[in-house]
Amino acid sequence: METMDKETLKEEIKKQIKYRFRKNIEDASKQEVYQGICYALKEMIIDEWIDTHKKYETLDSKMVYYLSMEFLMGRALGNNLINFGAYKEVAEVIEELDAGDLYHIEEEEPDAALGNGGLGRLAACFMDSLATLGYPAYGCGIRYRYGMFRQEIENGYQKEMPDEWLKNGNPFEIERPEYAVEIKFGGHVDAEYNENGKMYFVHRDYESIQAVPFDMPIVGYQNGVVNTLRVWDARPMHSFDLDSFDRGNYAKARENKNNARSIVEVLYPNDNHETGKQLRLKQQYFFVSASLQTAVKKYMQRHDNICGLADKVCFQLNDTHPTVAVAELMRILMDEYGVEWEQAWKITTKCCAYTNHTIMAEALEKWPIALFSSLLPRVYQIVEEIHRRFTEEIKAFFGDDQDILSRMSILYDGQVHMARLAIAGSFSVNGVARLHTEILKNQELSDFYKLTPEKFNNKTNGITQRRFLVHGNPELSDWITKQIGAGFITNLPELEKLTALADDKKKMKEFAEIKANNKKRLAAYIQEHNGIEINVNSMIDCQVKRLHEYKRQMLNILYVITLYQEMKENPGKKYCPRTVLFGAKSAPGYERAKLIIKLINNVADTVNNDKSIKNQLKVVFIEDYKVSNAELIFAAADLSEQISTASKEASGTGNMKFMLNGAITIGTMDGANVEIVEEVGRENAFVFGLSSDQVIEYEHNGQYKAIEIYNENPKLKKALDSLVDGTFIKEGEDKNLFQGLHQALLYGQHSNIADRYFVLADYDSYMDAQKQAEELYMNPEEWNRKAFLNVCHAGKFSSDRTIEEYASEIWRLKSII
């Protein structure tokens, strides 16, 4: 570390603890030591943070604003230390101060509750890569007080608890009240005329919320670049009504404060009721409007002509959540800067770019017109006009075809279709894996592709090796550095150099020992958190991701049930020892997904307590899956479950993290699995299941009959019937608890088609792939070699490569390094 020697650093840490907590370091708690280190590091980061933004201003750099509802950052301390080049020095300083060890100090940091799944983790990886590559960027989101939720498992059920990640403050953030902006909701809009007879619009009787930014540093890897993640907090414009308080109406006195706070309480409030829908739309407009107002104002402080905005600013819309940006930018340009419609539209459509993360209709957001227009009256007027003009464009190209209009209209069937608004108002529309982009172009968005093919492009997702290898798997990272140098930390394709070692038995033994050590580390975590002792020599078989039916945790647990039933039938037979590990949160209102969590836990309880199978199978559900425990899982995993229904997973990034850490993929040809298998070779993965074309064909022709597969397959029938025969029902539970899961797979439920995600169709193929995995695992040398080749061929899947493609092909940014 060049900026501060160890003795100076020791003094700085002691000083921070002394002045913040009125304690000497020897009396400080681990939490206080953690805070002291963070504040000491922040002192050093801030100089580079200031210098970076001065450089952007001096160069008048074009800036990308990455607008996302989620930024699943993980813990900041370890990542910042690695990127700042101070990890080993700080670890030594902590030991020399007799203040514990850095690993346990890091445990004091809660994961920032700013995201949930792959979408948010991708945004975090992108921020890391943007800084490491020296590209000017702001991440823009919401400073959630409780995020998604902290998951507890109680009697097998998911229980949602508040995630109080800010309880002890966030030492790396800086509040920026000087940049607060006003956000307006509700009210009505009046058209008025100025002295020249020009119409303008006045928003009246609205509710006012103040958006206050908090900035967090995003440290580039040892390059002096520090970018900013700006998350917005909501405050009332007038926080306390003294008059109401004096009259004894205490609730009314605090009403404004409570209304504002509700906007930033939780990520994705349950929206299966009207107030939840309204709150979710409020959240989206809140952070989008705050971010856009600030970006345009910042541009205008340095430039005279608003018409040049697109030369210096790009707004990347991460999925449909921030796509109200299209209409909001039009509002700002016209109402606040007096730009005429045609010019404003020209600017907007050169500034906005849209990333699509899903082909699933239910995830492409739609808002009831009545809700949208009452909450955002002026923005809705603009959406109406965009819709009118876009409809004319569609008719001019396709003719007056009502089927096409129903698929493309922004306003249709009483709803505002946000993905359609985004496509109409953006110059770029990208998918996140090659297969996903092709499905968008040829199936889901084919009409839009025909209209404007030049907009569509692919940007296959990636992950940051700084967190998921250097920090998450330090033993493997250090070993790789000894073999080929540290170049892979900023140039992941250098891992290809390792392939020369695949036939070196000594090196492969070292590689296997690292995996064994990581398994012990994970086993200790499971023992501590689950009270389950796992066999560290067993195959660690992992499916960790959001709980959703298309990701098919159901297929995995059916395999576990089948395997368990086979073990019961063959008590003398020796099986490949296996630990099946699940980690997943379900959305609070997603009842079937929550029931699958209960099923997994009931199966685990039965299997883990059955002595007759001699510990050959264990099932573990990791409570509160998040970035920090994910790092332990990726490093220890042998088998990576990527088993979504082909055509449904846009990309996936967990598949890349497992690959990078030496796990072998068992998966369908879906999302980025296709490209992973291309890179590593089909012989180094376990591929199964229907293709995306076969799934799409089944969906279109309606010929799929789940009940026939069930009736013709005795193993499958036995596994499925165990859901309703009481095998996995605990004492005192309703014997029909899992009837709904059984029903949905065989007959459909609530007017859904039976087995919507083709679990039964892929069952046999999945069983065969699992058999292959077992047989290979029983040959440790061959397994180890294939696992190692997965690491060697992971180079394509760095978010650095993805960001280089965005920067050169969409954003047109210039690096400052």
TrEMBL record:
PROSITE patterns: PHOSPHORYLASE. SUPFAM superfamilies: UDP-Glycosyltransferase/glycogen phosphorylase. It catalyses: [(1->4)-alpha-D-glucosyl](n) + phosphate = [(1->4)-alpha-D-glucosyl](n-1) + alpha-D-glucose 1-phosphate. The modification N6-(pyridoxal phosphate)lysine is found at residue 657. It comes from the Bacteria. Its cofactor is pyridoxal 5'-phosphate. Its EC number is 2.4.1.1. Gene3D superfamilies: Glycogen Phosphorylase B (3.40.50.2000). PANTHER family: GLYCOGEN PHOSPHORYLASE, GLYCOGEN PHOSPHORYLASE, LIVER FORM. Phosphorylase is an important allosteric enzyme in carbohydrate metabolism. Enzymes from different sources differ in their regulatory mechanisms and in their natural substrates. However, all known phosphorylases share catalytic and structural properties. Allosteric enzyme that catalyzes the rate-limiting step in glycogen catabolism, the phosphorolytic cleavage of glycogen to produce glucose-1-phosphate, and plays a central role in maintaining cellular and organismal glucose homeostasis. This is Alpha-1,4 glucan phosphorylase. It comes from Hespellia stercorisuis DSM 15480.
